[in-house]
Specification:
The protein has about 170 residues and is mostly helical. Helices cover about 85% and strands about 0% of the residues.
């Protein structure tokens, strides 16, 4: 149950999580589709190994940021980093037949997803006390489920119109 005094903040966090979740779903759809266009499915385990290394590095960097920056600055850094990564891959799309590019492109989805979750839940844990967290975290995180559904469904509907590569503009937006 959301109290009246919490409704505005919960709504803002829900919307924030919703739009980031949709963008990440669209980014993933583009990355995995392009990857599988040029490389075999048997290369996916290698992507996951690369992603594990990148996730470790991302967690390490986030931990350092968390101890030296304010949460507002971390959120801004996270948003700008995710945007730069997505748009950077769009700009480098002429390299899409290069296996190194494809591996980094798909593995970076996990980095974007992790950074989003770390910054979002770091913020949420600072905004709510323990009792509020028990009541509200499930409501706030519920924005991620419809966001992913809408992101994946919209990708299916939009790809015939704009192409898989141009999904990155949508994800960046």
């Amino acid at each position: 149950m959301i109290r009246e005094s919490e409704a505005g903040l919960v709504s803002k966090l829900f919307i924030f999580e919703f739009f980031q979740g949709a963008a990440i779903a669209i980014f993933y759809t583009s990355a995995v589709s392009i990857f599988l266009t040029y490389l075999p499915v048997s290369d996916l385990p290698k992507v996951f190994v690369l992603a594990a290394v990148l996730l470790w590095v991302t967690g390490f960097v986030y931990n350092k940021l968390e101890h030296h920056q304010s949460i507002q600055r971390i959120i801004l850094i996270g948003l700008l980093f995710n945007l730069a990564l997505i748009l950077g891959f769009k700009i480098m799309m002429p390299l899409k037949e290069n296996p190194v590019f494809l591996f980094l492109f798909l593995a970076s989805f996990n980095v974007v997803y992790l950074f989003n979750n770390l910054e979002f839940w770091g913020l949420a844990s600072l905004l709510f006390d323990v009792r509020q967290s028990k009541r509200l975290f499930s409501i706030v995180s519920a924005g991620d489920i419809p966001a992913k559904m809408i992101g994946y469904i919209s990708a299916v509907l939009i790809v015939p119109l704009i192409g898989t590569e141009n999904l990155l503009w949508l994800a960046g937006g």
